[in-house]
Specification:
Helix content: 25-40%
Distance between the termini: 38 Å
Number of domains: 1
Shape: elongated
Largest sheet: 6 strands, antiparallel
Oligomer: single chain
Number of helices: 7
Order of helices and strands: HEHHEHEHHEEEH
Radius of gyration: 18 Å
Structural class: alpha+beta
Strand order of the largest sheet: 2-1-3-4-5-6
Number of strands: 6
Amino acid sequence: MNPVSAPTPDLAALADSVREIEHHVAEAGWDGPVRVFALVRTQEMLRTEPGLAAQLDESVLEAARSQPWHLTSIEQEDLPAAPDLETLLAGLSWPSTVDGMAVTVERVVLPPAAEEEMPQDTDAALDYLLSHPERQDVRLVVGALRGGPSWCAVRTRANDADDQVGQGADLVPGLVAAVRSTLD
């Protein structure tokens, strides 16, 4: 039996941040827009902007003091208009002061066999997708650190509870790659 190794500090911080973002977005309910978050190391943020300490909860300040990789997520408002998520992400870039980023998006998914039967026509495909009895509404939260790990959280509308959120490093490989590309 292989011993389970502890996550690296950066991975642990990213996983905590993605879980926090997922919980925050879940509080707003379903049918929400795409949301984008910059991830910055809290210690460095407070070093460059000490006045921000007054806006943070004492538990966050304590975590930042004891964990050099503690991350603060900063929601990006007024995102540029884009016809789809791929175009939005392709148009994003971050200054070197941003250590990572996360995105939240809701999708409708079908089992693979049902996807194979989907019509090619866009309108027909949408009708098929929305009316299929095996469809699942999911919320994806994908985060990545510059040159480092990724972490994903997946919540289904059918199992909409904090203890029912799936998590892992590469659950949505295509979206992880798109998030990473914003950090290049």
